[in-house]
Structure formats: C-alpha cells, structure tokens
Amino acid sequence: MSIELLSLDNAQEIAHHYGYWAVFTGIALENTGIPIPGETITIVGGFLAGSGELNYWGVLSSAIAGAVIGDNFGYWIGKIGGWKVLVRVAKLFRFPEEKLELAKEKYSKNAAQAVFIGRFITLLRIFAGPLAGIAQMPYQKFLLYNFSGAALWALTIVSLSFFLGQIVSLQQIVLWVTQAGVFALVAVILVVSISILWKYRRSNLSAK
After folding, report:
1. 3-state DSSP call for residue 121?
2. Helix 139-164 vs helix 38-50: crossing angle, to nearest 10
3. In the prediction, which pLDDT does 207 show?
4. Measured on CA atoms in the order 85, 87, 91, 93, is the torsion positive or negative?
5. How many helices and strands in the chain, by DSSP H and E?
6. What is the mean pLDDT of the chain?
7. Above 90 in pLDDT, residue 195?
8. Which of 5, 54, 82, 133 is the most buried (most CB within 10 A)?
9. What percentage of the chain's residues is helix, strand, coil (to nearest 5)?
10. Distances from the Cα of 161 to the Cαs of 42, 48, 72, 165, in angstroms?
C-alpha cells in the first residue's frame, strides 16, 4: 500500500475497521523503516478514543507496542544487512567509503539521542532504528532508549489527539503534529549544519 493511498480518509477507514490492530501495525511498519504514515493512524486512534469508539489505554498500549517492536525489526535489519546496502548506494553516487565510515562513527556517538528523540522528528522516526543497527549500537542500550522514546512519543500523540479531538477537528490535529515534526527536522538540520561549519572553521583557523 503506497503512501498516496493512505490519505487521512484512508487512515480513518482503516482505524474504524481494525481499531487497535491498525494502530499497532501502522506504527510498527513505519518504525521498521517502511515510509507509511503510522503516526497519522495513531492520531486517528487517539481521536477515536476521545469520541468513545476506542479505549484510550488500548490505543496507547497498541502504539507503544507497535513502536517498540517496529524499531526492533528496523534495528536488526540495519545491523544484519544495512551497512552493505549503504556502501552499495554510496558507490553508485561515488561517495567514498572512508567518509561513510566517518559518518557512521559520528552517528554512533549520538545514536541513543536519535533513537529517543527521533520519534518526534519527521523522517528520523522511520530511519532511527535501522541506523542504530547500522551504527552497531549495543542492543541493551538500544532497548532502553527505544522503549523510553516509544512510551513518551505514544503518550504525547495519543493524549494530544484524545483531548484536542474534543475541541478541534482531526484534520487540524494532524496538521499541527505534521508541522511540529517538520519544524523539528529543520531544527536538527540547522544544528548539525552549524556544528559542521563551526568545526570546519576552527580546523582552518588552527591550520593557519
């Protein structure tokens, strides 16, 4: 099922028909690394809980379980075969493997933060698990940050849609959450870019 087919109307229909399984499966697939709008389905689940169609705790539990299990699949996919795929893609774009190794080392230093905070950031939520596996993040450490991040993310998203759904439309909630995720992504890109430029400038100054 493509992303285009999973419009908000489609997400609502799926959640209506499959309830907690829709929430669990949607976010599990997204966290495995498959780019489908699992977050949107979770928002719909919280919204339906607010209207009394679903149970709040059932939606919350489904979201946490799906996020944890999905990220675990993503982690092992990245750990077992992700690096080979990255190297092949890098070769296609003539990107040196040495620089790819350097990027891997840098990411591994921040993998825990990426797994925990990444759930709130567009795109990073999809790739945080596989990238943690590629970076060879210790599995026990991954489990800790994975579960903590999943619980906080699910509690935030389900609670927001549960309570806000009683005063604003579902479309508005989805728009706000989507915008927040994009703003977070832009902020991360800016911080990383400024950090790289600062280090580059310092290295040039010290070389003179």
Report:
1. coil
2. 50
3. 54
4. positive
5. 10, 0
6. 83
7. no
8. 133
9. 85, 0, 15
10. 9, 9, 26, 5
3 has a pLDDT exceeding 50: no
Instruction: Map tokens 């979770």 to a residue.
Output: 42
Handedness of CA 181, 183, 184, 190 (dihedral sign): positive
| 52: CB partners within 8 A, 6+ apart | none
pLDDT in tens, 24-70: 999 999 888 787 888 889 999 999 999 889 999 999 999 999 999 99
Q: Report the distance separating Cα 169 and Cα 171, nearest Å.
A: 5
Dist. CA 130–CA 122, nearest whole Å = 15
Residues 76 and 133: beta-carbon distance below 8 Å = yes
Q: Is the pLDDT of residue 191 over 90?
A: no
The two three-digit tokens of residue 49, written as one number: 């809980």
Nearest to 130 by CA among 85, 79, 54: 79
Structure tokens at 192: 């990383």
Q: In b/e form, how buried is each residue of 191-201, taking b as 16+ CB within 10 angstroms?
A: eeeeeeeeeee
User: Which pTM does this prediction carry?
Assistant: 0.80
Q: How many CB atoms lie within 10 A of CB 117?
A: 19
What 3-state DSSP class applies to 123?
coil
